[in-house]
Amino acid sequence: MIYLDTAATTPVCGPAAAAVQQAMLQQFANPSSRHFAGVEAAGALERHRAVIAAALGCQKEEIFFTSGGTEANHLAVFGAVEAAKKFREKKRIVISAIEHASVFESAKQLEARGYEVVYLQPDRYGNITAAQLAEAIDENTVLVSMMYINNELGTVLPAAAVKGIIRAKHSPALFHCDCVQAFCKKEFRAAALGADLISVSAHKIFGPKGVGALYIKKGTRIVPQVYGGEQEGKMRPGTQATALIAGFAAAVEAYRSAEYSRAVKAVKAYAVQRLEQLPGIVFNSDEAASEYILNFSLPGYRSEVLLNFLSAQGICVAAGSACAKGKPSHVLSAITRDKAVADSAIRLSFSHLNTPAQIDILTEQLQLALTTLAHERNA
Q: Is 323 a catalytic residue?
């Protein structure tokens, strides 16, 4: 198998798998229980929380575990808006038009409830400017949600500029940043980013699926969306998934950001070089995009057809976000009105495990696909 879909998920690394197993078999007690086994489990939970906090450069009390990035995003968006009801008439929300579906669809729900949602429109490669933010954010804005790295294009958005603009506009808005594709892959610290709320997830960095976290800056108030327990400071009640959290922490500790980034940059550069040889190719990711993601189109050849052709050869790529499950991408719709480009988009997402030899096979198979499919169309 040649796996080029790490933006959807990654394999679980050895240390994370071992940590999950150890927690399941030996440290299985409920961390809320008062007996010695529960106390030990609670201590382990807090050590894991400290690992995630250290990676974000924050205090462990600011980390709240969730079931993943989608839940963290949902809690941040709805929790922030609920908390802002004290402002009564202030009902503006600002997001980019290329946010992850968990933010984009949440905003749509709030729009249906009477909130004014400003969708910042990107350029051809998904870029949004600080000037657009400054124009959209005003004294009536209660939430700005902007991802750090787009999950389909790899576009790096001006998230670091948001908090300064909020202050300059004397806005009460909270700033939420979806960092699921940036966590451990791009160097940043919570304080420097300036976000009040940050979403992260384990399964994009070789950790287990089903666990993530929401950073809530000390002093920031949001309203819980689930009730019925004291866990996670009442912010996300329910028995914690201690084994998955152990795996999350182990994956963070095992991740070698600088080393992996260098390897991925080399593989992506080689992929661009090889793919440029394909006739009619259109790159949807620009040179400033994250080294982990490359999106391109081959107009005239539908994404699903190419994906299925490659899948039959043991090559895993994506036609868009995995969360969309084959539905048209709102991200591609936002960056281009060319239906042929949008309908033929392919996303490659890399890891340090990929090699130039794999890229050679990919491009050879794509060339074969173009030839085969063209022949079938003309037959």
A: yes
